[in-house]
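Reader question, answered in our methods column.
A reader sent in the components of a multi-part assembly and asked whether the whole thing could be modeled at once rather than chain by chain. We filled in our standard form and ran it. Here is what they sent:
COMPLEX SIZE: four components
ENTRIES:
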Amino acid sequence: MYSDSIIKNFRSYVDFQQKELDAFFDLAHYQKFKKNEMLFESGPGSCPFILIKSGCLMTYFTGEKDFIHVIQFGIENWWTGDLNSFMQEEASIYSIKAMANTEVYILGKKEFESLCAKFPNFEKYFRILFQNSLVSHQKRIIRNISFTAEEKYLTFTQNFGKLELILPQKYIASYLGITPEFLSMIRRKLAGR
Amino acid sequence: MYSDSIIKNFRSYVDFQQKELDAFFDLAHYQKFKKNEMLFESGPGSCPFILIKSGCLMTYFTGEKDFIHVIQFGIENWWTGDLNSFMQEEASIYSIKAMANTEVYILGKKEFESLCAKFPNFEKYFRILFQNSLVSHQKRIIRNISFTAEEKYLTFTQNFGKLELILPQKYIASYLGITPEFLSMIRRKLAGR
DNA sequence: GCATATCGTTAAAGTAGTTTAATAAAATGG
DNA sequence: CCATTTTATTAAACTACTTTAACGATATGC
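And here is the structure of the entire assembly that came back:
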C-alpha cells in the first residue's frame, strides 16, 4: 500500500521527514477503483481531494443534453478533485471516474487541515503544489485562447503521451473543447490519409 | 502608502499579526505607474510578483504578427505576474502594462521566500491565494471549452463590471479569445440594434 | 488644437469547427 | 461467442467566428 513513487514525489517538492509522511498515510484513505468505476458523483456531498498512486482519473461535469465536459485527466502523482467544493465543503457539479484500474489516497477536509496545521512542511508542499498547478492552468488557458484545434491536440499528445491510447477519443475531444468528429478528422489528416 | 484595503484583504485570508504585515511592507517595493506605462517587459529578466493596491494591470504576451494575447486583467487586491518566471527565475514571455494609474507592491523572489520561511502565516496565505486562484482558473477553462463567445462576454461583464468601460475592446476580445470585430457584433446585438 | 495614429464599426467573403445522419468498428455483458 | 450498446469514421450541410477592407470615431502627441 505504501508507495515509493508517491514518497519520492512528495520529497521532490519539500524535504519531508519520515514522521510527516507517516502522518499523511495515516490520515489518508487508500482505495482501489476498477476501470470505469465512479470515484465521486456530482451532488450535495463535497468532493474529496485525491492523490493518484497509479492509474487514471477523469474529472468532468455534465452539461446540456447530457454532454460530458472533461475538466481534467489525472495520472500517477497528480492530485485531483473539485478544489472549490472541497475547501468550501459545498456541493460539487463535478464527477470523477476511473479510466483505468486506479489506486488513490483520499484526503478529507479535516485531515487536510490537520496536516497543514501540524506540519509547516505540508503547508509548504500544498503551496508549491497549487503554485505549479496554477502555472499549468495558465498555460492551458493560453492554448485555449490562441491555439487551433490541431495545435491543441498536438500539445495534448505531447503532454499525455501513452495515455491517449487508453482514453476514448470523445473525452479527449471534450477536454480540448472540440467535437469528436472534428478530432477524428484532425487525426486522419495528421496520419496523412 | 500603507493601505487599509490591502491589510483588510490580507486578514480576510489569514489572521495576520501587525508585525507580519509590517514585514511585508518592509520587503515589498511600493511603486506608482501612470496609465499606459509598462511595469514589466518580456525578456531575459524574471517577472516580479505584484500586488495591486489600486488601478488596473494587463498581463499579456505577443504572438504572431505582433498580435497581443491578454492573459489577465488585474485589479485592486489582485496579485499578478508570471508565476513560472518568478519561481524558476527564468525569462518571461509576458509583459505587464498599466491600464489606468496604478499603485503596486512588488515582491522579489528572495523577499517572497523570506516571508514564507519566517512566517508560517505567509506560507498559509500564499497557499490559500494560489488555491483560490486555481479555482478561478479552472472556471475560466470551463468557460473556454463550453461557452459561446456571447456567453464568455456576458461572464466577463459580470466578473469585471465597470472595468469594461476603461479597457480598449480589442483587449477584452483578446482576453476572451475572440476577434474585436466579433465582439463589436456581439455588443451591438446585445444592445438590441 | 490640429495632425496622425490608433481604435471601433460595419459588411462581405471566407474558414475552422459543428451538426446531423448513416455506417463501420470496437467494447461490453450475458 | 454472439447480441447489444457504445464509440469512431465519413461526408454533406450548416453556423459561429475570422479575415479583409473601408470608413468613422477617439485618443495622443507636438
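What stands out: Residues 120-146 of chain A form the longest helix (27 residues). The radius of gyration of chain A is 18 Å.
Send us your own complexes using the same form.
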